[in-house]
Write a structure and sequence with these properties.
Elements lengths: L9 H8 L25 H10 L4 E5 L24 H4 L15 H6 L20 E6 L4 H8 L1 H10 L1 H26 L3 E5 L12 H7 L1 H13 L3 E5 L8 H7 L3 E3 L8 H8 L4 E6 L4 H4 L2 H15 L6 E5 L9 H14 L4
């Protein structure tokens, strides 16, 4: 790494997230959404740029249970305790597959995967020098439709409300133990969860459904995390503006991505930017693949000017994972402008 470009300290990141003041520059989390192989023949140059510009976090992931497949030393470490039936998966998209039938739910919950499964907790981590954030893909809605299929998941709130609550409570209990173990074994600072509960234009469901089926369980997760000194980061794509006041009430610490062209970042910043930290997701649908390097630099400045607060409350990243339509010159513009324009902001 360039000696002049140092990663921010763990303490600086904590202050930014908790609204206690600026770091020496705007923190960056771009590397957490980057896989250099997507740059193809420019991979080596991409790796160089990612080395030259600091990653202010340490990202770790853990193994989670599959639907049907289980490790050989723990056959119960899976959600479905049977093999798939042909009509559950054959020639069907992922979001159209129905693994879980509601009549199976009590048996499934009675034999839920054990969050103490040893292989999750055997990573050998180096000395902790940065803010350490642990990723966990799929939380309530995403794991719900992953097991039930999208159409079933969206109607379960009306047709099977009691069973859906049971399922969400079982998920929540599992995640709380993961948080506690992650703090114990890996000394994490942040727990990053994903739940895409918005479409490009609107949420998937009403605020009433959110408050009945999501808010109580998110609140339990956040409360458990805060009790052991861990921040909770929420990734949710789509337009979720109508839920943000509730996200703040729940106690989420960081919100990602505030999706460009789905949400109004100026309105979000005005209404909520001093009460929750924004992990501002740079647009990967239009600006990155189609824009010029100057377009990228202009958008970086716009996002920083829009979200930056004297209390901190801003981290810059991508809106989602980098894909193969990412021009290498736009990667350089993104990293360079964020680093330089973010100094002292």
């Amino acid at each position: 790494m360039n000696n002049e470009r140092k990663a921010l300290s763990r303490e600086e990141i904590i202050n930014v997230i908790e609204g206690k003041g600026h770091a020496s520059r705007i923190p960056t989390y771009y590397h957490g959404w980057m896989h250099p192989h997507v740059f193809g023949e420019d991979r080596e140059l991409a790796e160089k740029y990612l080395r030259d510009y600091p990653f202010d976090f340490e990202k770790i992931t853990i193994m989670l249970p599959d639907k049907y497949n289980a490790p050989s030393d723990d056959p119960s470490f899976r959600f479905m305790h049977r093999d798939p039936l042909p009509d559950e998966v054959e020639n069907k998209a992922l979001d159209a597959q129905t693994a879980l039938q509601m009549e199976e739910i009590d048996d499934m919950i009675a034999d839920f995967p054990d969050p103490n499964y040893h292989a999750i907790w055997e990573q050998k981590l180096g000395e902790k020098t940065k803010y350490r954030v642990l990723y966990m893909w799929f939380t309530l809605f995403e794991r719900h439709w992953w097991l039930r299929g999208m159409e079933n998941a969206l109607t379960d709130y009306y047709e099977y409300p009691e069973e859906t609550h049971k399922l969400y409570q079982a998920f929540t209990n599992f995640y709380i133990k993961l948080i506690q173990n992650s703090k114990k074994y890996y000394d994490i600072d942040g727990f990053f969860i994903t739940d895409d509960i918005g479409t490009q234009k609107y949420p998937f469901f009403s605020i009433d459904i959110f408050r009945e089926f999501f808010k109580p369980y998110y609140s339990q997760i956040v409360k458990a995390a805060h009790e052991v000194g861990v921040h909770v980061w929420l990734h949710t794509c789509g337009n979720v503006t109508s839920f943000i006041e509730d996200f703040i009430d729940i106690g989420f610490d960081v919100l990602h991505p505030i999706q460009k062209y789905s949400m109004d970042e100026v309105e979000v910043a005005r209404r909520f930017g001093d009460r929750i930290t924004i992990l501002a997701g740079f647009d990967v649908q239009q600006i990155i693949p189609n824009g010029t390097p100057e377009d990228v630099r202009r958008e970086v400045r716009h996002l920083i000017d829009t979200y930056s607060r004297k209390e901190g409350r801003l981290i810059m990243t991508l809106g989602n994972e980098a894909t193969c339509d990412f021009p290498i010159e736009n990667l350089y513009a993104l990293l360079d402008e964020t680093y330089n324009y973010g100094m002292g902001k």
